[in-house]
UniProtKB/TrEMBL annotation:
PANTHER family given in the database record: ACETYL, PROPIONYL, PYRUVATE, AND GLUTACONYL CARBOXYLASE-RELATED, METHYLCROTONOYL-COA CARBOXYLASE BETA CHAIN, MITOCHONDRIAL
Protein name stated in the entry: Acyl-CoA carboxylase subunit beta
Organism of this sequence: Chryseotalea sanaruensis
InterPro entries, alphabetized: AcCoA_carboxyl_beta, ClpP/crotonase-like_dom_sf, COA_CT_C, COA_CT_N, MCCB/AccD1-like
A cellular-component GO term for this protein: methylcrotonoyl-CoA carboxylase complex
Database matches in Pfam families: Carboxyl_trans
């Protein structure tokens, strides 16, 4: 029976992974094959080709925000990946944040979500003190939506503020102008440490030839106005010009090969080991029916290095599993929701995926220990929320939950979050959701992120709708009520999807569970570039 269940789960998960891979391949085409050909005809590489050429051969690239913009801006023809490719890659063995405008998507124009994605890339670079390489090829702000991208605090202008702040922090920033670079966007490469430009295809100016004509009546072509020769030989705005993309990227590699080493955080690492069990066995262990229980330790053993997991307080607060382990040699502290039903020493049954007072108390103490020992934290989420009801309330669940949130929020060691399944309500918060500054946050394709489960929310929303209709003197029959419930459920379930979350950057990526080790390992390697601040938990509720 167990094998039958495993095979059923595995078959379903493999279908989900196939859908993920298919969606990823389509998204990576950006504006499509025709637009890619147009880039090639101009003698240009695409954003993805530039990154592949720039990064070390056979090295890993950890893409951030592949599914950004998914299903958004349909009236404007869509904006795959937000019109920009971003991620962590190795250049001359040095981990860098690389940001490349995708000129196949609306000429690389900035949509509101593009700004959010660029700011997320800069945030990751600032938190981890990583060098940033900008490959600029953008028509600037998407004018029809300028009110949603231009004036606010977290809009387009924030990136230039970040350029200045990163420079003051000693973070290396290198920029290459490999296509258009206009208006306010012209400040980004020029606020970098060094700006290079590709001859004939690169151009940079505050206003293009049409705007110059309209504003001051001057007739001038874009190349004379702001091409490579102008800026390298007349204005001095750019530092060097290159005949093509490849030569420009070779020069960036040369720069990065000479950058000195900076102070490290000093996280512990030993010789890596593979997990004791094949990571892809997770497909069969993870129930396709999300109500069914499973033992989270089985999942952990397929993510961490063999023989490295030491559980903390295994006999207490059993709905959260805490323990020390290693991933690819790096020491980590794990905080994971236990999804099987457990029994405490008082003989009480506790539901899997629910945070009780004892488990919140244990997790808070464990998080503080990890900070004391300078061990990065990994949160594995499959959480329904905190326990409710008079017994829990009288037992001080809010106080214990606050203790856990306080320790987690004030934690100064880097935090990484993987949403495996449910991520509901305050459980999302306590388990280091997006609002709590995880260095990276990724979701498996089985993740569901919302204030409550789909069925609970749909029934609640239906009751509100029916009461509202009654207040207007209207009544609805059983069939109409069922149709209304289906409509509400379908809409809510769409919002539960990990792709919905990824399109809005609530998570950095939707990943195959087999990639979890890579995300944690590269995340810690990035975080190791930024020294850890002193931990101060503040006032703890006791």
């Amino acid at each position: 029976m167990e094998n039958l269940e495993f095979n059923k789960n595995e078959d379903q998960y493999k279908q989900i992974i196939y859908q993920l891979d298919t969606k990823a391949k389509k998204t990576k085409l950006g504006g499509g094959e025709k637009k890619i050909d147009e880039q090639h005809q101009k003698g240009k590489l695409t954003a993805r080709e530039r990154i592949e050429y720039l990064t070390d051969k056979n090295s890993e690239f950890l893409e951030i925000g592949l599914f950004v913009g998914e299903g958004m801006y349909k009236e404007q023809g869509g904006c795959p990946s937000g019109g920009v490719v971003a991620g962590l890659g190795y250049v001359q063995d040095r981990l860098c944040m690389i940001v490349a405008n995708d000129a196949t998507v609306k000429a690389g124009a900035w949509f509101p979500i593009t700004a959010k994605k660029n700011l997320r890339a800069q945030e990751i670079a600032m938190e981890n003190r990583l060098p940033v390489i900008y490959l600029v090829d953008s028509a600037g702000v998407f004018l029809p939506m300028q009110d949603e991208i231009f004036p606010d605090k977290e809009h387009f202008g924030r990136q230039f503020r970040n350029n200045a702040k990163m420079s003051a922090m000693g973070i290396v920033q290198i920029a290459a102008i490999m296509g258009s670079c206009v208006a306010g966007g012209a400040y980004l490469p020029i606020m970098s440490d060094e700006a290079m430009i590709v001859d004939k295809t690169g151009s940079i100016f505050l206003a293009g030839s049409y705007l110059v004509k309209a504003a001051i009546g001057e007739d001038i072509d874009n190349e004379t106005l702001g091409g490579a020769t102008t800026h390298c030989e007349i204005s001095g705005v750019t530092d060097n010009k290159f005949p093509n993309d490849q030569a420009c990227l070779d020069y960036i590699r040369s720069i990065m090969g000479k950058v000195g080493a900076f102070e490290k955080a000093g996280f512990d690492r030993v010789e890596p080991k593979a997990p004791a069990f094949d990571t892809k066995e997770i497909y069969g262990l993870f129930p396709s029916d999300r109500v069914k229980p499973y033992d989270t330790i089985d999942i952990i053993q397929r993510i961490v290095d063999e023989d490295s997991f030491d559980e903390y307080k295994a006999l207490y607060g059993k709905t959260i599993v805490c323990g020390f382990a290693r991933v690819n040699g790096w020491a980590i502290g794990i905080v994971a929701n236990q999804r099987k039903v457990v029994k405490n020493k008082k003989g009480e049954m506790q539901m899997g995926g629910v945070i009780y007072s004892d488990s919140a108390d244990k997790a808070a103490r464990f998080i503080m220990n990890c900070n004391q020992r300078k061990i990065p934290l990994v949160f594995l989420q499959d959480v329904s929320g905190f326990m409710v009801g008079s017994k829990s309330e009288h037992g001080g669940i809010i106080k214990d939950g606050a203790k856990m949130v306080n320790a987690m929020a004030n934690s100064t060691v880097p935090k990484f979050t993987i949403i495996m399944g449910n991520s509901y309500g305050a459980g999302n918060y306590a388990m280091c959701g997006k609002a709590y500054d995880p260095r990276l946050i990724a979701a498996w394709p089985t993740a569901q992120i919302a204030v409550m489960s789909g069925s609970s929310a749909a029934k609640t929303l239906l009751q509100i709708r029916v009461a509202s209709l009654k207040a207007q003197g209207k009544t609805i029959g059983k069939e109409e009520e069922e149709n209304l419930l289906k409509e509400i459920t379908d809409r809510y379930n769409e919002q539960l999807s990990p792709y919905y979350a990824a399109s809005r950057l609530w998570v950095d990526a939707v990943i195959d569970p087999a990639e979890t080790r890579k995300w944690i390992s590269m995340g810690i390697e990035a975080a190791n570039n930024a020294p850890v601040e002193k931990f101060n938990v503040g006032v703890i509720q006791t």
